[in-house]
Specification:
The complex is a heterodimer. Chain A is of the alpha+beta class. Chain A folds into three domains: about 220 residues, Aldehyde oxidase/xanthine dehydrogenase, molybdopterin binding domain (Aldehyde Oxidoreductase, domain 4, 2-Layer Sandwich), CATH 3.30.365; about 150 residues, Aldehyde oxidase/xanthine dehydrogenase, molybdopterin binding domain (Aldehyde Oxidoreductase, domain 4); about 210 residues, Aldehyde Oxidoreductase, domain 4 (2-Layer Sandwich), CATH 3.30.365.10. Chain A has 19 helices and 29 strands. Chain A is globular and about 80 Å long. The two termini of chain A are about 50 Å apart. Chain B is of the alpha+beta class. Chain B folds into two domains: about 70 residues, Beta-grasp domain (Ubiquitin-like (UB roll)); about 70 residues, Orthogonal Bundle (DNA polymerase, domain 1), CATH 1.10.150. A five-stranded mixed beta sheet of chain B has the order 2-1-5-3-4, with helices on both faces. In chain B, helix 2 crosses helix 5. The radius of gyration of chain B is 15 Å and the shape is globular. The chains are: A alpha+beta, B alpha+beta. Chains A and B meet through helix 9 and helix 18 of A and helix 1, helix 2, helix 3, helix 4 and helix 5 of B.
Chain lengths: ~750, ~150
């Protein structure tokens, strides 16, 4: 398919001729509102997310952020497919950050899938006095692997089908034939009997006069023309020639640059600043003191940074100045001795354990992790004429509009957020992780020119909202017949998703409980959230149980999945594709792991060896995924590859340690990343189960750490119960040496 | 005065000799295709080509490149048919970028490698391409490079 190289526009004003179709199912008034406020008479919306122009082009407005997951392509594919649009005539725009384009479907999606009204990773917002609930519920958030399964399934497809219905109604009127004699194909309505046809562009104005149907008929999978095909991503051409606009690239006229030094111990306050020398340096405009930070504003980022580094700055001491990683884990151990809160109670676990023929116990733990998105955190803000413009890459443009409005005291409608591509999100750019945006806003409030605040890599590493460190303790019991009868798991800190610590395996007696043990380290959502820690624990411990029972770890799992046919099928697919029982080169072993998260089920088999220096080498990863149905199969593969490498980087290298109350690691030299030479071959198998669509951005991340650790056990006889693997020097067991 | 050529155009900038080339390109010349990633030459997001060699511009003071010919991502395809070089075309063909932030530096590093070694072995590729991609596009980077060197995956 030929690619139009410039099909995507970020943050354009919605003007020009055409028809804008309003998504009507949940908010029938919205398309009229859109037409009234944005389109004018010549350019009506058919739904808030679809516009059809007289030249027959279709523009899809996407209310999610592109951070490499392909949402700017997948969502328009879903709308265009239901609309029967010609893909070559489809254009894509970022929906503006206004209430009109808030995403009610997403709120509903979270509500129905999680059984709560607000997703947990927004808890910080929900309880914050500075944020209004309205700002949360009117969201354009990109997180929870939710865009395609909620906005796409319940929003885009419905919008496309509703628009198609309205175009058919208009054509029936114009051609004076019954609607049942009409068909649609490639952005035209056809009347086969008379050989007449009308383009969508010709029909758009008339179609906009009809009310969008509330429940339009959606296509069956065999009718899809775009969904299920590997369509090239719309955002890629601009990402190979340097023109893709990231937040850090914004350059509004007259802009100044800010470099910031923030208190290293979270919660500490700025004590003193000696700004005299900084103010004499070339290009320095002002030194701005904030509660917990100091900024130098200059005419060039490097000059601002140099001046900041030369300045004497001190921060107040705090009650947390002696906190270390060791003290946090000791605090966790103590909390696990105390009172626990119930997570899952099934059967009588204490009785089953005391009656057990054998009991297996183990304690696992994982460290804090930073997100380390490639684009350092940044935000450009301009206060002028009682208004404010914001340029940044965020996982929720509307949420950021609300945040800047509440910090500055402006009305939300006086704040314009200019959307940009995100140089990585992974949870770091969610609207409950706004420390950079808060600083940028407070600094810019003191200027009438735009100010771009850019964090260094060191700022980013040391002022993150970290994936929490977790300790998890297990006991399991087998009866005299060798059946697994009891499962006890006590862990620290219940997080989202709520089911992350639950085992998929059929075990009659289960007691899962947790202790809260808060620290002063800020935490946030990190790709796959609590699944990333718990899948390592659950799938490693199950592997221990398999070996204890003297069984093949794959078969052991399969036997416990009799009532979970989708899980069993995915596990089987991974094992078969990887040649689970097949021969391996000497010195290599395979490990397997399985997890359901965000509505998708993933099993991975890792093929691992030990290098000459005792380091772990991962040669090949087979990743089987059941996400119901692949909307864009190439994106399914790329997200699976990405998830594996993200999880593998954490398993091999990821470790944020705390000393003197602050983060020790500073940059990529001491917080290492996987690189090309260590990147395994990744074989992705997709299973089209036809189940409800599952997410894709996150589910491939959780299983890989356990899959690698389980292979290492076979190779070395050593059970890995703490990550990262870089802290071990492995020696292959004699029988496994090459 | 710092004097060098960027994408064929002579530049004369009144900047400090210690200023890294990265910030001269981004803040002084407005060439934002070259990215800031780490500031310590550890990630390669800022890679540009200086006199034919890949250079991490975040640690290269402009005093060190006096009179040099610099190519950035914006200038890579200046003389290429169809507006893109074969490396850029392969990146589209293999759908390499995800977030895309590291890809300017990645493409510059690969372009510099292939200009001097048109058929690198896997080990040579591993040795030369040490840039960080947080999205993990490495499998596609490898297959895109292989498609350019005639090697099969």
């Amino acid at each position: 398919m030929p690619m139009n190289r410039r099909r995507f526009l970020l943050g354009t004003a919605i003007v020009g001729g055409g028809l804008l179709l309003g998504y009507a199912s949940t908010r029938p008034s919205k398309h009229q509102q859109a037409n009234a406020t944005l389109a004018g008479n010549a350019a009506p919306f058919l739904t808030t997310w679809l516009r059809i122009a007289p030249d027959n082009t279709v523009t899809v407005l996407v209310p999610h952020s592109e951070m490499g997951q392909g949402v700017l392509t997948a969502l328009p594919m879903m709308a265009a497919d239901e609309l029967d649009a010609d893909w070559n005539l489809v254009h894509v725009e970022q929906a503006p950050a206004t209430d009109l384009f808030a995403n009610g479907v997403l709120v509903k999606g979270f509500a129905t899938s999680l059984g709560v009204s607000i997703p947990g990773f927004l808890d910080g917002l929900a309880t914050s006095a500075t944020m209004k609930v309205a700002e949360i519920m009117n969201m354009q958030i990109t997180g929870g692997s939710s865009s395609v399964r909620f906005t796409g399934e319940q929003g885009m497809r419905v919008a496309g089908a509703a628009a198609r219905k309205m175009l058919l109604q208009a054509a029936a009127q114009q051609l004076e034939v019954p609607e049942s004699e009409l068909s649609t194909r490639l952005s035209h309505v056809h009347h086969e009997a008379s050989g007449r046809s009308l383009s969508y562009g010709e029909l758009a104005s008339a179609a906009a006069q009809f009310e969008p149907p509330a429940n339009p008929v959606l296509k069956r999978p065999e009718q899809y023309t775009l969904m299920g095909r590997p369509i090239p991503r719309i955002d890629i051409p601009a990402k190979v020639d340097g023109t893709a606009p990231f937040g850090i690239d914004a350059r509004p006229a007259g802009m100044l640059y800010a470099a910031v030094k923030t208190a290293p111990v979270f919660g500490s306050r700025l004590a003193s600043v000696d700004s005299a020398s900084a103010l004499q340096r070339r290009g320095v405009v002002r030194v701005v003191e904030l509660d917990d930070a100091v900024a130098v504003v200059a005419d060039n980022y490097w000059r601002a940074r140099q001046a900041l580094d030369a300045m004497a700055v001190s921060f107040d001491s705090t009650a947390n100045d002696a906190v270390t990683t060791q003290s946090i884990f000791a605090q966790y151990d103590q909390a696990l001795q105390g009172e626990l809160s119930e997570d899952v109670e099934k059967g009588d676990t204490p009785a089953a354990i005391s009656a057990a023929n054998s009991v297996v116990e183990a304690t696992y733990r994982v460290p804090y992790l930073a997100h380390a998105a490639m684009e350092p955190m940044n935000c450009t803000v301009h206060f002028h004429d009682g208004r404010c413009d914001v340029w940044t890459g965020t996982q929720d443009n509307l949420g950021i509009r609300g945040r800047v409005a509440s910090l500055s005291g402006l009305d939300e409608n006086a704040v314009t957020v200019h959307a940009h591509y995100l140089g990585g999100g992974f949870g770091r750019r969610l609207p409950n992780a706004t420390n950079t945006i808060d600083q940028a806003t407070r600094i810019a409030m003191q200027f009438d020119v735009p100010v771009k605040t850019v964090w260094s890599r060191e700022d980013d590493m040391q002022q993150d909202y970290y994936r929490p460190a977790v300790t998890s303790r297990f006991r399991a019991g087998f009866d005299a017949a060798g059946q697994l009868t009891a499962w006890e798991n006590h862990y620290i800190g219940k997080n989202e998703p709520a089911e992350a610590a639950h085992t998929p395996y059929s075990i009659p007696n289960q007691s899962i409980a947790y202790a809260d043990s808060p620290t002063h380290i800020p935490f946030g959502a990190w790709r796959s959230v609590a699944h990333s820690q718990h899948t390592f624990f659950l799938e490693s411990f199950v592997d221990e149980l398999a070996h204890h029972a003297g069984q093949n770890p794959y078969q052991f799992r399969l036997n416990l999945l009799a009532d979970k046919p989708r899980h069993a099928a995915v596990l089987k697919a991974a094992a078969e594709r990887a040649g689970w029982d097949g021969n391996l080169p000497a010195g290599r072993a395979r490990g397997i792991a399985l997890q359901e998260s965000f509505g998708s089920i993933v099993a991975q088999v890792a093929e691992v060896s030990i290098g000459e220096a005792g380091e772990v080498r991962v040669h090949r990863v087979t990743c089987a995924i059941d996400c119901g149905r692949a909307v864009n199969p190439d994106t399914v593969r790329s997200q699976a590859e990405s998830g594996v490498i993200f999880g593998l980087t954490a398993a091999l290298y990821g470790e944020i340690t705390i000393d003197k109350g602050a983060v020790v690691q500073r940059n990529f030299n001491d917080y290492e990343m996987l690189r090309l030479r260590e990147s395994p071959e990744i074989d992705v198998v997709t299973i089209e189960s036809g189940a409800a669509l599952g997410g894709l951005g996150e589910p491939a991340t959780p299983p890989i750490a356990a899959a690698v650790a389980n292979a290492l056990y076979i190779l070395t006889g050593q059970r890995v119960r703490e990550l990262p693997l870089k802290n071990y020097r492995f020696t292959a067991a004699p029988s496994e040496r090459a | 005065m710092a004097r060098f050529r960027v994408n064929g155009i002579a530049q004369e900038l009144d900047i400090e000799p210690q200023m890294p080339l990265l910030w001269a390109l981004r803040d002084e010349l407005g060439l934002t295709g070259t990215k800031f990633g780490c500031g310590i030459a550890a990630c390669g997001a800022c890679t540009v080509i200086v006199n034919g060699n890949p250079v991490r511009s975040c640690v290269t003071p402009v005093s060190a490149i006096e009179g040099a010919e610099i190519t950035t991502i914006e200038g890579l395809a200046v003389n290429a048919a169809g507006g893109l070089t074969p490396v850029q075309q392969a990146w589209i063909e293999h759908q390499v970028p995800q977030c895309g932030y590291c890809q300017s530096g990645m493409i510059m590093a690969v372009s510099a490698l292939l200009a001097t070694n048109p058929a690198p072995s896997d080990a040579e590729i591993d040795g030369a391409i040490t840039n960080v991609c947080r999205c993990g596009t490495y499998p596609r980077i490898r297959s895109a490079i292989r498609s350019l060197t005639g090697a099969t995956a």
